[in-house]
Amino acid sequence: MIPEALHRAAETLAIKNDLGRLSRIETLSGGANNKVFRLICDRRPAILKSYFRDLGDKRDRLEAEYAFVNFARAHGLDCVAEPLGCDSAAGIAIYSVLPGRTMHEGDVTTATVNQALDFLLCLNANRAAADATRLGTGSEACFSVDDHIATVEHRLKRLTRIPGDDALDRDARRFVAGNLVPLWHRVSQRVIEGFLKSGLDPAQVLQTAERCLSPSDFGFHNALLDEDGTVYFIDFEYAGWDDPAKVVGDFFNQVALPVPATHRAAFTAAVTGLSPAPEITRARIDLLMPVYGCKWICIILNE
Predict the structure, then answer these.
(1) What are phi and psi of 233, to 5 degrees?
(2) Closest by alpha carbon to 48, among 4, 101, 10, 5?
(3) Residue 56 and residue 74: Cα distance in Å, rounded?
(4) 9 vs 15, 49, 88, 158, 249, CA distance in Å?
(5) Euclidean distance between CA atoms 91 and 82, whole angstroms
(6) Nearest to residue 287, comparing CAs of 185, 153, 187?
């Protein structure tokens, strides 16, 4: 059942942006925090997103995604949806309908990984443009090694307080205390030691030229595959400026649709080419990779 207020706001937005009269709204699966719908209108269909809002979470998901997609389309990237209109007060936006289907494990190939890499490189080929400087920082953006470590420690701290007293809750608490916390202590210590041994300061903040534009939550779980082999990318509510090491770390550690590690060397080499100090960027990516393994264990347990 579509709430009446949402239906009215969607209809107003469709008419305002020349989609014609709204005849039907279909609920689509796949939305996590946000709700996603297909609008059937007189002139053309569209995708409607109703963005999650919470008083305890200050992130403006609508603004982040809408601005990022506008930037990408303005610079010729048609592998993302076209933004058609938004209503900030109602927390909704409409986008063009992309072709393709949800991707599966067998779809993660050299060809599709290269398309993901091309998307990232093309985004960052335009990072000096005026409209790029107006984009915000990504969600959980990290600009120093200390930031990366603090982000995981924040997630880990929450997991040490898992509530409930059924068997699953007790097993989870035992795993966190007995396995994950000791693992994290070893990993974080080795990472800091590795940076110091390489002559890199864990507290050093990345300069603007060393940062990149990140789709965030980047992976094939947020993509569609067309029948001609073209990959289209979706869901940029956490997008913005970030550390290249975080982009690569998340891309190769996300668990929804894993990317084989055999692709990591070539992917990393291309990403380091964005940096004015490629050898340092490569070292940072390699040293921080285990941090993102731990982060994604925390994300799985959070579920």
Answers:
(1) -110, 145
(2) 10
(3) 33
(4) 10, 12, 11, 37, 39
(5) 18
(6) 187
Q: How many residues in total does the chain contain?
A: 303
Alpha carbons 77 and 224: distance in angstroms, whole number = 15
CA distances from 3 to 34, 74, 181, 223 (A): 15, 33, 44, 28
Question: What is d(CA 77, CA 122) in angstroms, rounded to the nearest whole number?
Answer: 8
Pairwise CA distance, residues 168 & 14, whole Å: 46
Q: What is the mean pLDDT of residues 263-278?
A: 97
Tokens for 71?
Answer: 């930037």
Report how far apart the first and last C-alpha atoms of the chain are (Å, whole number): 26
Q: Are 270 and 117 in contact (CB under 8 A)?
A: yes
Chain segment 99-148, per-residue pLDDT in tens: 999 999 999 999 999 999 999 999 999 999 999 999 999 999 999 999 99
Indicate the SS3 state at residue 80. Answer: coil
One-letter identity of residue 18: D
The conformation of residue 275, written as its DSSP 8-state character, comes to S
What is the rounded distance in angstroms from the CA atom of residue 73 to the CA atom of residue 79?
A: 9
Asked if 104 and 95 touch (Cβ cutoff 8 Å), the reply is no
When computed from its CA atoms, the radius of gyration of the chain, rounded to whole angstroms, is: 20
Q: What is the pTM of this model?
A: 0.94
